[in-house]
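Fig. S4 source data, part A: sequence.
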Amino acid sequence: MRSRTAFYLALILLLVTGGVGLHGCAVNPVTGERQFVLFTEGQEIQMGRAADQDITAALGEYDDPELQRWVDAMGQEMAAISERPDLPWTFRVLDDPTINAFALPGGYIYVTRGILSHMNSDAELAGVLGHEIGHVTARHGITRVSRAQIAELGLGIGMILAPDLRPLGQAAGAGLQLLFLRNSREAEREADDLGLGYMSERDYDPRAVARVFEMLGRASGAEDGERIPGFLSTHPDPLERRGTILEQTTGDAPQYQGSRDDRDGFLQRLDGMVFGTNPREGYFRDGVFLHPEMAFRMDFPREWRTANARTEVQGVSPQEDAVILIELVEETSPEQARNAFLAMDGVVGISRNEDSVNGLPAAGARFRVDGNGTEFRGQVAFIRHGGLTFRVLGYAVAGAWNNREGAVLQSLASFREVTDPAILNAQPRRIEVVRTEVETTFEGFLQRYPSTVDAEVVGVMNGLRSGDVIPAGTLVKRVTGDLPPAN
């Protein structure tokens, strides 16, 4: 993480001190017009590659190599006919329940298993991949970064790409912050048009994109535990765009057309896919974080906003003036880990302790930090459990510490081993693809093949509504498996 942050800051310094004059304008590969970009293509690729490391470390790739190869092959097929075929195109399926797809500069494109679980054909996926390829070919992402840099006089991009809002938390890499730079409506529409063109040239039915936007319009986001901003939070007005796409792809003289769809083949690839939050990687219930694989639990303040990523668990106070983090460290001794923490630049130890935490070996400290002119105060505990050393950290801006200290200390003191077999053996819900034996209504399907999620969720993920008739022999998704226990 520190090396990537150093790369971004060095790049910013280069641009501020002289690079702007060299690379302030470029030719847009799509339009052929002059475009304001502060980065060369090589720098764009380097930025995307570094950000990709953060994305995959924090969110993880979905563990299905065959699915990964298939999605990559479809993406490569369309990227090869784009205006930038020579980029190091990379397509990944992220192990995240959020309904989302996004692109990073340099040709790095991601779809989540959450959005895959809500699609129903090859053409729908091709439309989403084509849209994200369009963002890269038109250099929308790198243009956003360039404009953000100028808007902040060369300083704001450092805050966007390498923020020290959590100076003691190491997991939120600079690349993740790129997800929060939103495209303009004009850029989204341009990516729509480019994507429709790419998929049409490969003979995918572009009308499928209208189905995707209808699904997005109905969807409310991830089942639970969003780890990244959802598609609806970063893309404008899906139902309006659905109407535009229908105008472009239907009628007597459609602008875009194609025949490939393949519903059955697509759905068969989803059979058995994890649906929603995977409890094996840890989950929240009523403010309690439980981790079956690592066999621990910890209470977070109920009113705090929480999130779980592969590299850390975090809670943020409603006023966003305090943070609680759980993450792993390399040291095997809690005392050694505590001493290394207190040796960090800017960290000043106030007091130390070697008290165990609920019978687990531990070493802790109270501390303060001076970061960019802002003082923080906090408490840290290093706890040894299951052959691992956990850093359990809580801190706040100095002026808020007196109000947050009680909640932080109570949370840190709640870390304990889990022995309940029901929690240790918790399993994820999964998609099961079934073929209807007779013609039935949507309600009849739900009765014959019940799911462990709401009927509306089943309807959205299948593109079905109340009263719809499902022909015999149709593949339809349902969700099986129960939610894990709370305690």
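Fig. S4 source data, part B ends here. Residues 2-274 form one domain.
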